[in-house]
Amino acid sequence: MSAPVAIVAAMHEELSALLAQMPDEQRVRAAGRDFWIGHLHGQPVVAVLSRIGKVAAAVTATVLLERFGVRAIVFTGVAGGLAPGVNVGDVVVASELLQHDLDASPIFPKYEVPLMGMARFTADAAIADALSVVATQVLSDPAALIGRQALDEFGIEAPRVHRGLLVSGDRFVSTTAESEALRRDLPDALAVEMEGAAMAQVCHDYGVPFAAMRTISDRADDAAHGDFARFVVEVASRYSLALVSAWLAALPLSGETSAAT
Ligand code: ADE
């Protein structure tokens, strides 16, 4: 039997949507969290809520690796769009992740993780490729996914999938001044969130594949706090469920072989 994959959600609503699809989940309590062990689309999985922020993400990843021996970690959640054209309702699949609030300069270059000599952590290319493919399929019919009313409510028209740099920090970016500063300092950053790069660093340390996909819930500007809670329920949790389900359904079952990860 193959090792499980970990599905990590940032929000309760996303996790409960996934758990509702797991026929056999069992709860294991560790580090003050509930880890749900079971199957989704025939694949052994561990699903967990990371909680919010980089430390919470790092603890969650470490427990997944040490205690549950997962063979890969996929993070699903929301992010604020930074790059022009990364709009509410779009999906960003990370190819690289960086901590935008890490700065030990002048001793080390800004953003570099001290003593690691690196600032950017690479997401697993095969998983990111597979997630990009399923995201493009899932977003091709947004009305079927979230309903016409939610599309109108959140101003979503033709949602797109982007691939590139995702930046993380222990701040909800909710002023236009801060998002402009991030765009200036990190011009290739597509979106900002609060966990991904921390989890990517832990996975790098353990040599285990990591990937992240984020639904854009806001533009990280003065309006960012808007309808956040409703967006998570009505849009992001449906995207997460559809994307994770489609990705898992396309994975070879234990014992089968395929070039796909
Ligand atoms: N997650 C969703 N939107 C965000 C934002 N604006 N800043 C940080 N994390 C986020």
Protein traits:
261 residues, alpha/beta, five-stranded mixed barrel, 8 helices, 10 strands, binds adenine
Could you explain the architecture of this structure?
This protein is α/β, with parallel strands linked by helices and 261 residues long. The chain has eight helices and ten strands. It is globular, with a radius of gyration of 17 Å. The two termini are 16 Å apart. It binds adenine. The site of adenine has 13 residues, from strand 5, strand 9 and strand 10.
Structural class category: alpha/beta
Strand content: 25-35%
Give the C-alpha Rg.
17 Å
Low-pLDDT windows of residues: none
Indicate the mean pLDDT: 93
Give the biggest sheet.
5 strands, mixed, barrel
Bound molecules: adenine
**What's the N-to-C terminus distance?**
16 Å
Q: What's the number of helices? A: 8
Apparent shape: globular
Number of strands: 10
The portion of residues assigned to helices is 25-40%
Strand order of the largest sheet: 5-9-8-6-10
Sketch the topology as an H/E string, one letter per element. EHEEEHEEEHHHEHEHEH
